[in-house]
Amino acid sequence: MTPFITEQDSELQLLSNVHDALSINSEASQRDLAQYTNLSLGMTNALLRRFADKGWLYMKKISKRNIQYVLTPQGMKELAARSKRYLKNTARLMNEYQGCIRRFVQDSSRAGCTSLILVGDNDLEFLFDYACHFCKLSFIKIASEDFNPQHGYVTSNSLIVFSDEGRYESVQKNIGASADVKRYTSVIDILSSAEALPV
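Request: output the structure for the sequence above.
Response:
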């Protein structure tokens, strides 16, 4: 799961990518920067001009066809400030996610759950593992393509959490309206109470 990306985050990412590219090759052309940042040449041109207008980037004409780009001290300061804000926001979001996951695992434990099965890859896997360890539940991680509801590791006391919404919906359809449906959920459903989670 990836944290919500704002326009400012995208701008920060591009500014950071331009800085990295210029650190590797101080004579990088606009085409080089476009390739490094994985943007079209036109978009790169527009954003470089925007950065120059904001005073973050200095564009020096070397010849009729060549321009040298340099991140200004103001650009470096902006990059540092935005990086700090991004890290603070990410840390706050992780704390919210940790709280949601821990409450969910604690409630599941109180309801008689003895194991949590995380199906699929998820960036928050370590938070589920930690919460299970804290609440004394077994934590099992299964690849999405390997999950089988009839397998022996799925017991009546297992709770199954899906990282992939599509896989979750597919299993829900197969289960139908049986009592088992309460034992299945998704990471998105668990995190829905987090304030900063985009819907």
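The chain has seven helices and six strands.
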